[in-house]
Amino acid sequence: MKNNKYVYYTIGFIVIIMVWLIGSAMVNDNFILPSINQTFLRLIKLFGETKTYISVFNTVVILLIILIVSFVISISLALISFKSIQFKQVITPSLSLLKIVPLPALIILLLTHQSRGAVSIILTTFLVIPLMYDILYAHIVSINQDILDELKLLTSFNRSVLFSVYIPLIGVGIITAFLQTFGLGLKMKVMTEFVSNAPNTIGYELSFAGASYAMDLVFAWSVILIVIVVLVDVGIHFVLRKIQTNR
Questions:
Q1: Is the separation of the CB atoms in 229 and 183 below 8 Å?
Q2: Which helix (H) or strand (E) holds 58?
Q3: 135, containing H or E segment
Q4: CB count, 10 Å around CB of 190?
Q5: Cβ pair 192, 125 in contact under 8 A
Q6: Would you list the domain boundaries of the chain?
Q7: Tens digits of residue pLDDT in 61-79
Q8: C-alpha angle with apex 76: 74 to 79, nearest 5 degrees?
C-alpha cells in the first residue's frame, strides 16, 4: 500500500512534466511558456549566484522564525482560551478580523509606516497566528477530560505540566499546525515581498524577473519554491508518522 502511494506520486509528477512539455511545444514561444531545458539552464545559473542563496535565506529562514514566534503566541493564546472562555470570546473577533481584512489595504497602510522588508514579516505573521491558534486550540480541547481532571488533583498548571503533559498530548496538532502554515506562510511572504519590493528576497527576484519579462527566470524561481515546500512537507510528514508510530 505504501509503495503504491509513491507510484501514484511519481505518476502525478510525470503528468505535470508531460503537460509542461506538450504546452511548451504547442506554444513554441519561450517568452510565453519557457521549455524545461531553458528553465533548467536558468536554474543552474541561479545556483551559481550568491544572491540566490541570500534571497532564499531571507525568505525561508525568516519565515521559519516567524512560524516559531507565531507558535509561541498561538499556543499561549490557545491555552489561555482553554482556561478562560471569557478570554476566548474577547480575542475571537480580533483573530477573525486578521483573517478577513483586505490584504491590499494592509499593504498600503504598512508601507506608509514600515520598511519594505518589515511589511512581508508583519503580514505573514498576521496570516499565520489565527490559523495556528485554531489548530492548536482544537487539539487542546480534544484532550481527554479524564486526564485533565486527574492532573488537577495532583498539581496546578505550571511550566512542567505544559511541557510534560500538554505539549506531548497535542504533538500531532503542533506538527499539523507547522505543516499547514508553512506552505501558506511561504506564499504570503513571497507575495508581499513581490508587492512591497522587499530587497534580497525571493519575492523581489520574482518582481525583477516579471519586470524584465524573463519567464524562464520566473519559472526557475517557481521550481525552487516548489522544491522547498515539498522538502519541508516530506520532512514534517516523516516526523508526524514517527509520532503516530510511537503512540
A1: yes
A2: none
A3: helix 116-141
A4: 26
A5: no
A6: 1-33, 35-246
A7: 999 999 999 999 999 999 8
A8: 105
